[in-house]
Amino acid sequence: MMRRYPLLCSLGLLSGVVIGLGCWHKDQQHCSYNEGDDFCQSRGWGSFCNTCEADNHGCFDEAPPADCLAQALDDGVASGPESDGDGTGGGSTSGPPTGQGASSAGADECTPGCQGSTPFCVDGACVDCDEAPENACAGLGQGLPFCIDGECVECSSSSACEGATPVCDDDTHVCVACTAHSQCESGACQLMNGGSCFPPDTVIEEVHGTDGVSALSAAVNSFANGSYGIIIVHGWDGNYSEITVGDNKTIALLAAQGESPVIQGEAGERGVRVESGAVLYMDGLHIMDSGKQGLLVAQGRAWVDRGRIVYNSGGGVRVTNLGELVLRNSFVGGDIAGVDAASVEGASLSVLYSTLVGGAQDDDEYPAALRCADPVDIVVRNSILATNDSAAEVVCIIEPGAISFTATENPVAGGGNVALNDLDAMWFNDLATDFSLDSPPSGMQAVAKWLPGDPTTDIHGDQRRTDGSLDYPGADVPMTE
Questions:
Q1: CA distance 227 to 272
Q2: Position with higher pLDDT, 30 vs 316
Q3: Which residues neighbour 153 within 8 Å (Cβ) at sequence distance 6 or greater?
Q4: For residues 277 and 247, is the Cβ–Cβ distance under 8 A?
Q5: 426 C-beta neighbours (distance < 10 Å), count
Q6: Helix (H, G, I), strand (E, B) or coil at 135
Q7: What is the DSSP pairing of strand 243-245 with strand 151-153?
Q8: Where in the chain are the domains?
């Protein structure tokens, strides 16, 4: 009595069928058309029947993968597409030729072969994967195993992506690097390390104001040297005390959804310090009213998203000694006499879609939005640089073109930059702490140019223009009627 076995498609082979040039050749002695494992063992050809392999009539000593096991169906004559050849199907092939998928047609019915957007031959016609057998895309062996809207693609969800490209792009269905913490199942993205996600076993802690002003600092210190850690920070009526990130730790401080926690350095103290070897990611937090700079990056690295580092008596941010800082969708600076929004000394600074405002003149001190000394690398794009004094807002010797598509008061070399003349306090909601645009000048409406990979929303979550047309620079896109 003959048992009937299922037709499977895996790695270009259908159960008991060898794929040739545009046709199927049925191997009458293939184990999947006979008694499966028993058939192989009775002939001394092997212990297992592998329905995904053509060689040796599918018989091997090694157990096949689960989806290649021979499973008996109802009794009856084995069915399967017949060839227009001699019907013996005794030969074998290493798989379908390039552009050639499963076929149930004669050798001449899909000649010279299917390719392009319709790489599969079914019933004598070239079709896309929607009309091909299940898992046909995987059978092509091109690293595009999923079928989406008739096209073989790399991924259908992020569960198919890993390593340096852990995110499945919703539009292209290609695995790409992460660009936001929310894209990672572990809870945080290594934005400064190629866009891989934090390790899946990263510990996540939550900090509440009821735990005390030093709770955030204690949480950072609780992580071991060299470890990864994620801290969800909740807002409260008071402010957390200053923190230091060192000991080669990689820490993500993420504001709880819908909350705006504040870090404040005490008198004579900074808000946040990042030391050599450490990496800090901050998203949605405020550093405000500290006794020194809001953020000091000394040899370490930091990435700030949707931050407000404002109204700190020692200035906004300072980067020194080969440190690296990225500011994205952030407000930095504030109207405090004599202090810069950002200063860079032998280090690197990248500013994207951010608003940097230097303070007012203090005697002979003329604050800048950006001040540099021996910079390693400076890049400013799609941003606003201004000061509340009459001096230059950029005091920095940098490469031509380092600043682009940015609004300034005075002309600055670089593609797409726009000079708007002296700052008017009415541009912003609050020149001290809130640089949301209130009454911006008309010349500010068409400055920034969005590029793939840039944030699609502003500091408030409002949508940016991503169609290539020019838009507002800085961290805020004003609401328009």
A1: 19
A2: 316
A3: 137, 144, 146, 147, 172, 173, 174
A4: yes
A5: 11
A6: coil
A7: unpaired
A8: 1-144, 154-193, 202-444
| Residue 443, φ and ψ in degrees, nearest 5 | -70, -10
CA gap 461, 451 in Å, rounded: 18
Contact 222, 216 (CB under 8 A): no
DSSP 464: P
Q: Are 460 and 454 in contact, with CB atoms under 8 Å apart? A: no
Mean pLDDT taken over the chain: 86
> Of how many residues is the chain composed?
481
Q: Which value, in Å, is the radius of gyration of the alpha carbons in the chain?
A: 31
In this prediction, residue 214 has a pLDDT band, given cuts at 50, 70 and 90, of very high
Residues 270, 477, 401: CA angle, nearest 5 degrees: 75
Q: What is the mean pLDDT of residues 42-53?
A: 84
Contacts of 53 (CB under 8 A, 6+ apart): 13, 60, 64, 68
- What does the block give as tokens for 118? 């319709």
Q: Is the dihedral of CA 138, 144, 147, 151 positive or negative?
A: negative
**CB atoms near residue 13 (< 10 Å):** 27
Looking at per-residue pLDDT, the higher value among 80 and 384 belongs to: 384
Q: What is the pLDDT of residue 57?
A: 85
* Structure tokens given for 1: 């009595």
pTM for the full model? 0.76
* CATH of the domain spanning 202-444: 2.160.20
Give the whole-angstrom CA distance, residue 392 versus residue 368.
7
- Residue 278, classified by CB atoms within 10 Å of its CB into exposed (0-12), middle (13-18) or buried (19+), is buried
- Strand-pair category, 250-255 with 48-49: unpaired
- Token output for 314: 């020692």
Residues 90-102, buried b or exposed e (16+ Cβ, 10 A)? eebeeebeebbbb
Measured from the Cβ of residue 400, the count of other Cβ atoms closer than 10 Å reads 8
